[in-house]
Every structure is written in structure tokens, then in C-alpha cells.
């Protein structure tokens, strides 16, 4: 089984993931993508034989809607957070973010994922109209499944971004939860 198939299998075993996409569809957040920690931690927990609990994770959702106003986004966030408070929502319209926001940004989901600091976190999933999982991984899935944390290639050549990546690694302290991780400076 390749990494993509293994990821789809892991996602399929999580009833909450289907529920999250149902909630987003009810709020008309089209083409929503679950990404970053919720996906990364699912894989790392499976690989290290730990119990995954999406309720303790931030639910990082990105979507690209140039026509949605910021006020409408705030309203959607408030409704979702209030009605479905068991999840820790982080819902971002990547079209409204920029580099200063420290959130994924861009005109498309694919371009936004390339702004996430680590290659292992730059992975997103969505569910098609047919109910099939779709995987977005601009840097591939190898680092994620090899328990490797590398800086995004766009960050490794910029000293300011590379320093931010290294601070983020210290702040996240992932090695406390997953001691098998391998960290790379460049």
C-alpha cells in the first residue's frame, strides 16, 4: 500500500472527519480542505501506535473563495464554533490571508499549502461530491510517513523564514509526543 492509499485508509477510519466535512458543507464552505496538524497528527499517531483523538487537535480548514467577504467569513466561523464547539476550529479563507497573517495564503489551495512551514504539515484532504477523499500534498507524502520534519523548500533558503521554522519546532515540541521524529534544519 502506498502512502496515499494508507492516508485514505486512516482518514476513512475516522468518523469525525466525515462529520467535519458535513458541518462545512452545511455552512456552504465549498471545497474545504482539512490540513496541517489534524492530518499530520493522524498519520504520526498511527505510525507510532498511539491513539488518535481529533478532539484534542486544532481543526485547520482552508478554502479559497475570492467572493466571500471577511464579514461573512467571521459569521460562518462564529456559527460553526458555537454549534460545534467540541472541535477546535481554525477556518481560513486563504484568499484573504497574506504572508503577515502567519496562516496559509494564496489564490488556490495548492499554492496556500506551499506556504506552510514544514513539508510534513503541508498536506490537505477534502471529500469529493462522490464521497471520495482527495489528497493535496505539494511536497509529497514521504516526509510525513517517514516521520521527518523538513522546512518547506521555500523557507529553507530564506534566513528569516528558516529562523521562524526553527522557533516553531521548539514551540511545538513535537518530540515530546513523538520521540521517533527526525528533525532537519534545511
List keywords for this structure.
single chain; 186 residues; alpha/beta; 5-stranded mixed sheet; two-stranded parallel ribbon; 9 helices; globular
SSE inventory with pairings:
Blueprint: H1 3-12, H2 15-26, E1 33-35, H3 37-47, E2 58-63, H4 70-83, E3 88-93, H5 109-113, E4 124-127, E5 133-136, H6 142-145, E6 148-149, H7 153-156, H8 159-172, H9 174-177, E7 182-183
Parallel strand pairs: 2-3, 6-7
Antiparallel strand pairs: 1-2, 1-4, 4-5
Strand content: 5-15%
- The tally of strands reads 7
Give the proportion of residues in helices.
Answer: 40-55%
The helix/strand order is HHEHEHEHEEHEHHHE
Radius of gyration: 16 Å
Shape: globular
Strands side by side in the biggest sheet: 3-2-1-4-5
Report mean pLDDT, rounded to a whole number.
91
Low-confidence stretches: none
Explain this structure to me?
There is one protein chain. The protein is α/β, with parallel strands linked by helices and 186 residues long. Helices cover 42% and strands 15% of the residues. It is built from nine helices and seven strands; from the N terminus they run H-H-E-H-E-H-E-H-E-E-H-E-H-H-H-E. It has helices at 3-12, 15-26, 37-47, 70-83, 109-113, 142-145, 153-156, 159-172, 174-177; strands spanning 33-35, 58-63, 88-93, 124-127, 133-136, 148-149, 182-183. The strands form two sheets. It has a five-stranded mixed β-sheet. A hairpin with a 5-residue loop joins strand 4 and strand 5. The longest helix has 14 residues, at 70-83. The protein is globular and about 40 Å long. The chain starts with a helix and ends with a strand. The model has no long low-confidence stretch (mean pLDDT 91).
Amino acid at each position: 500500500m502506498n502512502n496515499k492509499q494508507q492516508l485514505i485508509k486512516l482518514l476513512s477510519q475516522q468518523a469525525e472527519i466525515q462529520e467535519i466535512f458535513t458541518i462545512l458543507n452545511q455552512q456552504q464552505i465549498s471545497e474545504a480542505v482539512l490540513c496541517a496538524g489534524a492530518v499530520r497528527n493522524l498519520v504520526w499517531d498511527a505510525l507510532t501506535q498511539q491513539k488518535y483523538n481529533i478532539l484534542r487537535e486544532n481543526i485547520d480548514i482552508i478554502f479559497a473563495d475570492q467572493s466571500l467577504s471577511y464579514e461573512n467569513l467571521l459569521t460562518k466561523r462564529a456559527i460553526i464554533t458555537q454549534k460545534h464547539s467540541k472541535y477546535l476550529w481554525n477556518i481560513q479563507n486563504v484568499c484573504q490571508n497574506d504572508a503577515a497573517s502567519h496562516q496559509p495564503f494564496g489564490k488556490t489551495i495548492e499554492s496556500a499549502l506551499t506556504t506552510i512551514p514544514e513539508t510534513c504539515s503541508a498536506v490537505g484532504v477534502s471529500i469529493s461530491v462522490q464521497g471520495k477523499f482527495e489528497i493535496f500534498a505539494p511536497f509529497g507524502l514521504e516526509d510525513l510517513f517517514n516521520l521527518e520534519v523538513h522546512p518547506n523548500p521555500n523557507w529553507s533558503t530564506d534566513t528569516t523564514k528558516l529562523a521562524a521554522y526553527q522557533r516553531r519546532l521548539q514551540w511545538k515540541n513535537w518530540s515530546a509526543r513523538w520521540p521517533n521524529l527526525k528533525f532537519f534544519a534545511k
